[in-house]
User: What shape does this take?
Amino acid sequence: MKKVSVIIPAYNEADAIGATLRAIRERLFCHELIVVDDGSEDATAHLAKDWADLVIRLPRNRGKGAAVQIGWQRSSGDVVMLLDGDLRESAGEAGHLLAPVLADACDMAIAILPPPKQKAGMGLAKGLAKRGIKWLTGFEARAPLSGQRAIRRDLLQKLGKIDRGFGIEVGLTVDALRAGYRIREVPVPFLHRETGNDWRGYSHRGKEFVAIGRTLCTKWWEGKPWIRTP
Assistant: This one.
């Protein structure tokens, strides 16, 4: 039987982390549950200790990519599941995401979340990610920015370093497809915090757009034949 490790990168998630971890414990069978507290300024790490097998505290905020990298490298599972800390009770639906990887139907499963209750922004970041992934790999992604993923450990080992910041999801998808791994997108009724149509929301989406563009440019450059090592 394959061992499953759940990795949750979390930054200032004190209001949601307890409900998220409890739902995982109660409804998902996993061999280890690891929380990487990415320099939180609240009680995230303290609350996570009640449920997690391991809580890794980073002294400063290093970004989601770095937190994920540290978390999966400290894990031991054959399958690594990445979940956000703000899923609350809906984290218990993670079995739908895990199933195709355990059944060897794919090497990485990506969750397609329900449509947001309120439309926010103009979809520029998601559109850029979808077009970029299609341009670089030919894959038509429905959920290019979804951070909820179940991944075979050997895939992560083959890819090595994960992109940092908001480009992590796009980078993972492009690298996995280029390496010949199988990806499947799976509808899962996860619910998480939505960004609004306020300054904070627009600022977040603006940073996300820039990071995605930077990641896509890097992946394009890495794919050029003249920089490949013999």
